[in-house]
Write the structure tokens for this entry.
Amino acid sequence: MIEGKNLDFATAHDRGLITRVLDGDDFAAEVHAFARFCPPNKASRAVGLIKRSVQTGAELPLEVGWALERELQARLFSSEDAKAGLQAYLDKAKPTLQGG
């Protein structure tokens, strides 16, 4: 992202940017099965804001993109899920996340 380069799949995979490529006959089903890692028991809000930061930030000047990233990160850290996640970590328990 810093250099603004496009990478081929092999290079992106080697660098850990891609964990898998879905290329089956039932592509839509594979995508839906993979996407289940997110809601409702995972950090769906964080994933959504990460996607927003990357997609929107790519169209902004660097300094504005950094400001957007800081704003979105502040939202996440003040969310109820963040509080629940931190408490669960301290309690050595599994967090109950609500997506908020």
Q: What stands out?
A: The chain has a mean pLDDT of 83. The two ends are 28 Å apart (CA to CA). The chain has five helices and no strands.
